[in-house]
Design brief:
The protein is an alpha/beta fold. It has 21 helices and 27 strands. The strands form 5 sheets. A 9-stranded mixed sheet has the order 11-12-13-14-15-21-20-17-16. Helix 11 packs antiparallel against helix 12.
Length: 637
């Protein structure tokens, strides 16, 4: 019996409550719970130190909220980190129910969630109407004392992708059952327990208020005494630097994260003239990872074929990855798995927790797009193509207008997600039933399926929607948010999308491609809100335009793109150096007196303005506005 199996067996026999989860999560007192950078130094917080702070915070919170009735929801509005975990457990130990609030949500949404839960207090660093705020400093400044009167319920907010967020609650039995599902994952694929140089570290990328981050990151791994690595920011550079420096072994993230990783690898290959070499290496790698000698193939990929690529991407320690929360592009799965980062596709939702994940060891199965088999804690049935589930990991209550409405987790719950169940028992996600649109040949299809086929490093976001056409009917339009808006970038992006469209079966083909002049509206999970895109286009409040195919020669588009970019880049050079008289060929150091710190500031300004990251190490000659503008144009090819 392995270390993990022993813990899970003990947990199954223990009282199924949140107090039991706490007991198991803080048994490994000397292990590091969190690890992060602070002024260049690596800092850690052990489980033992965190537990002492939780006990002190419990006493302080009890004193502060002594007038509240036991079981009252208390909001938690903090980013990932020690303060979040301390407040979370302190709320439960005081007999209150933590309401996990999305820190990316608009104030009105947060206030609505507080009202629906009946929460009049929240722990956070921001004030909201209708609730009194307790700062984390008030809790962590406490000295001595403890209070323990356990509550046994957690409240989460749905993502709001298809409307206003709803409040879903899980009791201790449901949470324990979700944690025990990790045993099924371990049984099916033991590589989830892989170490690197004697450690296992998980990137704390997913927010803990999200069901994916709460269950599969915080609770799964803290119950085994593993380390969570905190990010200083969500910029691509910070993520890569953190993974490399801290030797992160496990990364669970949303598709947008993995798409960015894949796009970065493709851009780097194009920049260095290695695109064809990358493609050949990927084909060889995937054959090795799908054959009978996968372990040997994995070693060859990590240490020979893609050693340098991994060093530049997320580091060489990565051992197990999961994507979930939405459809992921086919090319992303191929690239990430191909370079030797095992990426598995999962599925879940707030009401049912993490439901399944594709766990077959051969890469060829991961590339099929399966979301795996449902965890044994749940049953499934499929009616009219929609997935229904029930089981002890499903939600146990819902809150509306301050009233708790119990829910029997053994009642059938319609996910409204369309799935295909194949003969081998594996599920394939097709999309939300209320999002389905009519393809070019009249077949009903998920917009996510169409969008995944148009993934492109030059596009920030895409949305497939139905729009009226000139014939009085409707057609599928692809709405695109470009990463760059200069003429050359738009022409290259347009041509790439048209070529993709030409090669697709009629079912997946779009009738027109529109470019948005503004960012596309996103849900709280960073997925595009297709219904809102359609509504705003029809209302005329989202400005879009078309680029007819072949409307401008490449040379003319390049020249026009340079004319558009140069003034903007010159302005950035001027802002950073404080020199007003900057010309297209002014040298950053010799003509403008810029130093190395200012140069890195310039690169950050370029990234923020144009959405393009410049690697100073691989592009040391970008010292003039003209050279930077040319680099930006090259990046848009």
């Amino acid at each position: 019996m392995t270390f993990y199996e022993k813990i899970l067996q003990e947990l199954e026999q223990a009282e199924q409550s949140l107090s039991t989860v706490y007991e198991y999560a803080f048994r490994f007192t000397d292990e590091a719970l969190f690890e992060w950078d602070e002024n260049g130094a690596v800092c850690t917080l052990t489980y033992g130190a965190a537990q002492k702070r939780i006990e002190a915070a419990s006493f302080a919170l009890h004193e502060r909220l002594s007038a509240l009735a036991p079981g009252t929801p208390v909001g938690l509005y903090l980013p990932n980190g020690p303060d979040w975990v301390i407040a979370f457990w302190a709320i439960l130990r005081c007999g209150f129910r933590p309401l996990l609030l999305n820190t990316l949500a608009p104030a009105a949404t947060v206030e609505q969630c507080l009202m629906d839960a009946g929460a009049t207090f929240l722990i956070g660093n921001r004030a909201f109407s209708g609730a009194k705020t307790v700062s984390p400093e008030e809790l962590t400044a406490a000295n001595g004392g403890d209070w323990c009167d356990w509550a046994d319920e957690i409240l989460l907010c749905t993502s709001g992708t298809t409307g206003a967020p709803r409040l879903i609650a899980f009791d201790g039995k449901a949470v324990c059952a979700q944690i025990r599902n990790s045993g099924y994952v371990l049984h099916e694929n033991r590589s989830i327990a892989s170490f690197y140089h004697g450690h296992l570290k998980l990137l704390a990328f997913l927010p803990f208020y999200h069901v994916f981050g709460l269950s599969a990151v915080l609770l799964w791994f803290s119950c085994f005494g593993r380390t969570l690595v905190l990010l200083p920011s969500l910029s691509p550079e910070a993520i890569a630097r953190t993974c490399q420096k801290h030797e992160v072994t496990h990364i669970f993230a949303l598709p947008v994260f993995w798409n960015a990783v894949a796009d970065g690898i493709v851009r780097a290959a194009k920049r260095t003239g290695q695109a064809e070499k990358l493609e050949k290496a990927l084909r060889l790698s995937l054959r090795l990872l799908s054959g009978p000698f996968r372990k040997a193939g994995q070693w060859i990929c990590r240490n020979l074929i893609f050693r340098s690529v991994q060093q530049q991407a997320l580091g060489r320690a990565v051992r197990f990855c999961i994507t979930g929360g939405g459809a992921i592009r086919e090319d992303t799965m191929r690239i990430v798995n191909g370079i030797g980062y095992p990426l598995y596709n999962g599925y879940g939702m707030t009401e049912i927790g993490i439901a399944c994940v594709e766990l077959r060891k051969s890469a060829k199965f991961r590339l099929l797009g399966s979301i795996g088999r449902l965890f044994p804690s749940m049953e499934q049935k499929i009616e009219d193509g929609e997935l229904w589930v029930r089981g002890r990991t499903c939600y146990t209550a819902q809150y509306r207008n301050g009233v708790r409405l119990p829910h029997d987790p053994m009642e059938w719950f319609n996910t409204h997600d369309c799935v295909e169940l194949r003969a081998d028992g594996y599920l394939y996600f097709a999309g939300r039933s209320d999002d389905m649109i009519n393809g070019e040949n009249g077949e009903r299809i998920s917009p996510a399926a169409i969008e995944s086929l148009f993934g492109c490093p030059l596009a920030q976001n895409v949305a497939a929607i139905e729009l009226p056409n000139a014939q009085g009917g409707s057609g599928v339009a692809l709405v695109v948010e470009p990463k760059q808006y200069n003429a050359y970038a738009l022409k290259n992006l347009s041509e790439a999308l048209y070529r993709k469209n030409d090669g697709l079966p009629r079912t997946y083909r779009v009738s027109k491609i529109l470019f948005s002049r503004e960012p596309l509206p996103l849900a709280l999970t960073q997925k595009v809100q297709n219904s809102e895109v359609r509504r705003r286009i029809l209302a005329g409040t989202l400005p879009v335009f078309e680029l007819p195919r072949g409307s401008e020669p490449v040379e003319a588009a390049y020249s026009r793109g340079m004319e558009e970019l140069l003034p903007k880049v010159i302005a950035l050079f001027s802002e950073v150096t404080g020199i007003a008289s900057v010309t297209p060929d002014s040298h950053f150091q010799y003509d403008l007196g810029g130093d190395s710190l200012q140069y890195f500031s310039l690169l950050e300004r370029v990234r923020d303005t144009f959405g393009v990251t410049i690697d100073a190490a691989s592009a040391p000659d970008l010292s003039t506005p003209r050279a930077v503008a040319a680099y930006l144009l090259k990046e848009s090819e």
